[in-house]
Amino acid sequence: MTGPHMLTDDLHGIFPALPTPLTPAGRPDLAALTDLVERNIAAGVTGLVPMGGTGEFTALSDEDRIAVVRRTVEAARGALPVVPGVLSTGFADAVTMGQAFRAAGADAIMLVTPFYVVPTQEGVAEYFRAYRKAVDAPLVYYDIPGRTGFYTQIDMIAGLADDGVIIGAKICNTDAHYFNRLAERVADKISLMSGDDMLYAIHLMHGARGGVLASAPLLPGYWVRLHGTLARGEFAEGIALHRKLLPVFAALFNETNPGPLKAMLAAMGQPVGDVALPLRAPGAATRALMDTALKAIREEQLA
């Protein structure tokens, strides 16, 4: 249990980005969430990330977001850290959610860079500094330029790391050279976590301590094995294990996450309901890729 003072060293290994199970009425299915959390803990993951993009933060009410985080904390029973993602568009809403998540037992907050507005590097740095003062919680910087349109400069995030504003960062930038340069600057100060399932092996070799991954709830045990192999420096074997996931990646990311993930979980006996609008259930092309992925999972005994 990390308690109220989660540290950089607590942020390592596999942190599944959890989908939010939904009832037919579109409300959180807390019983299904408990089952999902318990299955991931039993597989050996080292942390949990409810809400965020995979958890459909932007589609849910404040009440439902808080209920999901509270139940995740309850189901974790203090065994490992819970780090919910906050994807609010404005500072006031982000602070309200962060304070509520903290009150619900969250160990840290994964805060996305502001989006819709077009901020400067200095504006984002001030946003994180002000947030750290307003919300009494360790912060994980969430960098996902493909969704936010914001490109984090290395000097800016290094400044936040140097000043102790953040304990880590989830990096979804797909430029491997960028990640390598970032790690050279900050990997001794904060915990870099891969946010790109497809680049995980590269990120681990370049200094990531783990990952916040959308495919991990589907195959948590396999991801724990894969991470352990890479963390031991067994890179050839780790890359081979990672490559076996290519059919899974093709299915899960053919449409916007978490639609395919929820459908794949259901097909594997872990029903979590549908996605919320404006997302829809996967189409025919993705279903065909899912069939291929499920066959690979069975044949390669990935689950």
Which helices and strands appear, and what pairs or packs with what?
Blueprint (H helix, E strand, L loop, with lengths): L12 E4 L13 H13 L19 H15 L8 E2 L4 H13 L5 E4 L8 H14 L4 E5 L1 H4 L5 H9 L5 E4 L4 H11 L4 E4 L5 H6 L4 E4 L6 H12 L3 H9 L2 H7 L6 H9 L16 H17 L3
Helix pairs in contact: 1-2, 4-6, 6-7, 9-10, 11-13
Question: What would you note in describing this structure?
Answer:
- By secondary structure, this protein is an alpha/beta fold.
- Helices cover 46% and strands 9% of the residues.
- It has 13 helices and 7 strands.
- It has a 7-stranded parallel sheet with strand order 1-7-6-5-4-3-2.
- Helix 6 runs parallel beside helix 7 (176-186).
- The radius of gyration is 18 Å and the shape is globular.
- The model has no long low-confidence stretch (mean pLDDT 96).
- Strand segment count: 7
Oligomerization category of the chains in this entry: single chain
Q: What is the radius of gyration?
A: 18 Å
For the sheet with most strands, the description reads: 7 strands, parallel
What is the helix fraction of residues, given as a range? 40-55%
Average pLDDT, rounded to a whole number, is: 96
Helical segment tally?
13
Please tell me what the overall shape is. Answer: globular
pLDDT under 50 segments (min length 5)?
A: none
Q: What is the string of SSEs from the N terminus onward?
A: EHHEHEHEHHEHEHEHHHHH
> In angstroms, what separates the terminal alpha carbons?
27 Å
- Order of strands in the sheet with the most strands? 1-7-6-5-4-3-2
Strand % is 5-15%
Structural class: alpha/beta
